[in-house]
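Q: How would the structure tokens look for this protein?
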Amino acid sequence: MNKPELIQFVKTLAPDCEAKEGKQYAEALVPGESLHDLAGKLKENEESLFDFLVCITGVDYGKELGCIYQLRSTKYSHNLILKVKTSDRENPNFDSLTDLWKSADFLEREVYDLLGIKFNNHPDLRRLFLDNSWGFPLRKDYVDDVNIVTK
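A: Here is the predicted structure in token form.
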């Protein structure tokens, strides 16, 4: 599928998402509650077969926190970007995709460790790099009391 076809395909699977043509890949902004359902359909559907979760990137947009998922179909060689956002900075959470792609395990743990975004139903959600004395250093409102990180 080319980008416009992929966008239309995603819209048929999830009418509540905003899909568009990005600079490099097709992109879809998905409501958090629809993420797992859409990801499962994209992985299992014979027309898309997104069998490879390339990466998950956590993002602090200022007022919102979010995740960007890059999916790839090794059979069809197409890529798709899924984005989710939440304005809940106190308890940000999205559904885990570890049951769909094993690679989500450490990727979600990294996002949790550095941004504090929790993933519902993750099998082992704990910090990956930092101990619990740290806050979440990739957040824009992070304050380093020990002056290890400076602006």
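Strands lie at 18-21, 26-29, 52-60, 65-72, 79-86, 93-95, 118-120.

The chain has one domain: 3-120.

Upvote if useful.
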